Amino acid sequence: MEGTDEATVRAAVESGDSLPGTAGFAGRLDDALVRDVLGRYPLFVESGAAGGAVPDADWSADPTELADPDPVPAGHVRDADGTREVWSLPDPDPFSNPETAVEAVRDAVETSIDAVDADGLAIAFSGGVDSALLAARLDAPLYVAGFPDSHDVEAARSAAELLGRGLRVVELTHDAIERAVPGIVAATGRTNAMAVQIALPLYLTAERVAADGFDRLALGQGADELFGGYAKVAKAPEDPRVDADTVRGAQREVVATLPDQLSRDVLTLRAAGVEPVTPLLHDRVVSAALRLDDRMLVDGETRKWALRQAALGSLPEAVAMRDKKAAQYGSLAARELDRLARQAGYKRRMDDHVTQYVESLVE
């Protein structure tokens, strides 16, 4: 069992508690396979495997070990009775007032970060509030990946200076991208452009971290989904990218995308030689985030309002309130992968030209 002990998982199955105080889990429990409600650990079963107890040869956390891997859905148990959902995200009442919300978020976030063992740990640092919280509270080196003129490199440098921390820059190049793409595709089984663009800075950062002798990489993953960091959440219900008619509803909608995202990211990082550490995805943080109402998530133009207010206890205001770009854009990985595709003859007029280019690199 990855993530926690079997006794905790068994109690969660019996009680139906979807957030039993862990950072996620997946694996075998007696004769069943289980995966936590947010899918924080990947778990695959051989497609077409017979019902009942699954032989060890027919399941794995690594899809490359199976002939035809099929993910076990998050929040599900697979046993002799088939695959069934046993956990779903709770829908608690919101906090009664903003002050209570901020205090609860601060306590959950600080407790989760402070519990991380810094031995063998490095931090993926972009200069935004999520990774800056890790940097402010953990004694571990900071790494940022990006092309020399990228937003992430500049933002990370300025934030590291405000925090009085050093920074190690992983400079992205076209050669590095072309070398990394086949490894990402092999690990994740994905060739679509967006998945590869997101994975590139993660993979190349992790490679450097592993080469420097660290085996764990802390990331601020989950904060955008949990705390209202996306424009499409802030603009609900007008934004056509979400179905929800409230900000809080849109938050839950994007939280539901985490299992697929996390599987991609965990597999990417493991392929590069490190184990991810994601304290902002601990159950106590998730529990607090699910109690935020619309204005606690997005207040006017300020996204992730409650998290930013909570972060003021650890960070300078200039860092806590800073906006950032998604990693694939802030690092310029998406732009430069597109450039490489066009240089290789895959023009933008072609259908999904970057995906076609990625597929050409692994043929």
From TrEMBL:
- The residue ranges of the Asparagine synthetase domain are 106-237, 250-345
Instruction: Write down the superkingdom of origin.
Output: Archaea
Keyword Transmembrane annotated: no
Which stretches of sequence are listed as region Disordered?
1-25, 48-74
- What cellular component GO annotations does this protein have? cytosol
> Has the keyword Plastid been applied to this entry?
no
Which molecular function term from Gene Ontology is one that the record holds?
A: ATP binding
**What are the protein's UniProt keywords?**
ATP-binding, Nucleotide-binding
Listed GO biological process terms:
asparagine biosynthetic process
Pfam families this protein is in?
Asn_synthase
Protein name, UniProt field: Asparagine synthase
**Which organism's genome codes for this protein?**
Haloarcula pellucida
The top of its lineage is: Archaea, Methanobacteriati, Methanobacteriota, Stenosarchaea group, Halobacteria
